[in-house]
Inverse folding.
DNA sequence: TTGTACGCGTTATCAG
DNA sequence: CTGATAACGCGTACAA
């Protein structure tokens, strides 16, 4: 690999002069600058960012931690982050945790060792105490699609209560009286918020609130299928289900299919996230859309602003969800 | 951030001793080693990999270039790469190109500047001449799910000809005589291979080969819908379509729906890739499955083997595809 | 405008 | 077994 020393030798100048030329410094004559720049190009010089980072204390990369890159929800966030980072010349180190806390901590250490300039945490498992440690580490970070109870940390989220309301009210407006809720893990903020909005709406409307019709599982299709089977094979089954994400909804759809229930005739179904496949021809899932890519962009740009010194002290962005009505919801059939 | 110098001072030894302790070197007494290790832990020391990378000439990270992380096909590959890298203590820098060649080159330079240890190219746009340059750069790389004509480069692919055969023969076996093919970009190797297998099967079986029934588009649902509309609204329409990936197939499904055609009654449809959503309740797409995650793992492990000195000179892995028959294919209706 | 000298945090080499 | 010392490639005060 060619270094600035090589260029310096070839050009008959000092390495510092080459450095100045390559960094477009004003304290160098225009002609030597251009001469050196051309030479560098011709020699195929690529700056060593390890060395530069060592000096400047900044490597030019962001760390992104997500639970699962296969999940389109996080894929969209990732895309937003990556776009924003790329536009500003930064790299993105991708870390997936599978929801495993140990792995998350392991990755966090890896990223610190690599001296990334900032962290974007779209993961959910990390406990508050660890976040506290992170705050001391001086490396800027931002929470995406999650909050932290004890810690005051910058975040960008979508208003889950509002989203939960949109979904539940839509079902109630259609005339449903027997509405169940299927969430992700019960310790995940989003799960709880959507559930609490669901409860609030039911109680406002004077609809029955059954304990057995509030289920927490995990944010996967398999979990949705299992819960769906259980929920829909009871003698008294709900006429509508609000699922806390689209994957769960798809699993429930699968279970309904198995049990010979037609959607939306026998069962109305609302999901959450509007992942790309919710709009598929035969799926046509009614769902709550979140601006996921935008979340990623906002998060990345905030961290980069902090890194580059325009110090936004904090960030508390709450974006608005949007109900997307498709074909899995209808008034309840006469039964 | 605490450095080895800080630890050295605190322990009353030289920095080099600390370095030896932290690297578990044998040329240090067991007791000082342990003492220093404990001290480092207590001080919250995290090694600076920029400095380490500078002297060792290796940063401990892989660069991964994919066209689009939203596409489940590449998300799966990414997952495989990330898993393998994590297990061996490496990070992954994610780069998405949107199929834009300029962006790919830009990223390639970024990754070189960051001195990643190896490259995994799941992108398709890069031209052979550029690969040639890459070979000179001494940084090991591997092609995933693509080949290069002129250059002898390590690769891991799935046998597209075999996959194309599986799909086309399945349709022919069902009795279809009017089979169309919809590919991705015509300059993509996978597209061409699947198409050529399609042609071979048709000619072997003595089935009519219509020029208008071979269409190249792009690997997206939108493209599939457009092509589907055109193909299916002709007076003489095919009774079966082999789509070169699942997204295209889904688009075609959408178009068929719009035109009032039932699947598989009026139209049989085979996709390619078996992305997670092909198995969805109402989609149930017959498709050709590729071991995507495995490809990612094999690719990453190969590059890492090279990096770590166990020098596999080359890699030419051809994995086998698998036909997954679901509910979008059936014998042609009487017409 | 340019060159010199030093430091960033680590590892490796060579004495001791 | 341990301690100096140099080197990795670059940026930057300081001197010229």
């Amino acid at each position: 690999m060619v270094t600035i020393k090589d260029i310096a030798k070839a050009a008959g100048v000092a390495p510092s002069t080459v450095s100045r030329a390559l960094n477009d410094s004003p304290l160098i004559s225009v002609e030597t600058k251009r001469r050196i720049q051309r030479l560098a190009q011709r020699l195929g010089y690529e700056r060593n960012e390890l060395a530069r980072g060592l000096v400047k204390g900044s490597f030019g990369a962001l760390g992104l931690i997500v639970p699962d890159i296969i999940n389109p929800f996080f894929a969209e966030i990732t895309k937003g982050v990556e776009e924003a980072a790329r536009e500003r010349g930064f790299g993105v180190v991708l870390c997936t945790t599978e929801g495993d806390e140990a792995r998350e901590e392991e990755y966090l250490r890896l990223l610190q060792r690599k001296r990334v300039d900032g962290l974007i945490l779209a993961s959910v498992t990390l406990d508050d105490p660890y976040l506290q440690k992170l705050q001391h580490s001086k490396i800027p970070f931002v929470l995406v699609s999650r909050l932290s109870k004890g810690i005051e940390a910058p975040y960008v989220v979508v208003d889950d209560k509002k989203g939960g309301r949109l979904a539940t009210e839509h079902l109630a407006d259609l005339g449903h009286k027997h509405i169940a809720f299927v969430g992700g893990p019960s310790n995940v903020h989003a799960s709880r918020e959507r559930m609490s909005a669901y409860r609030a709406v039911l109680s406002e409307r004077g609809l029955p609130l059954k304990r057995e019709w509030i289920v927490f599982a995990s944010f996967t299709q398999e979990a949705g299928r299992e819960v769906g089977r259980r929920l829909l094979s009871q003698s008294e089954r709900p006429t509508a289900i609000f699922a806390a994400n689209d994957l769960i909804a798809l699993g429930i759809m699968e279970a309904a299919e198995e049990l010979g229930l037609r959607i939306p005739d026998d069962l109305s179904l609302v999901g959450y996230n509007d992942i790309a496949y919710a709009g598929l021809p035969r799926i046509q899932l009614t769902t709550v859309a979140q601006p996921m890519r935008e979340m990623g962009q906002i998060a990345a740009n905030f961290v980069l602003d902090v890194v580059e010194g325009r110090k936004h002290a904090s960030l508390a962005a709450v974006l608005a969800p949007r109900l997307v009505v498709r074909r899995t919801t209808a008034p309840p059939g006469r039964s």
Summary: Chain B touches chain A through 49 residues (CB under 8 Å). The two ends of chain B are 76 Å apart (CA to CA). Chain B has a mean pLDDT of 93. Chain B has three domains: 4-47, 57-157+291-319, 160-290.
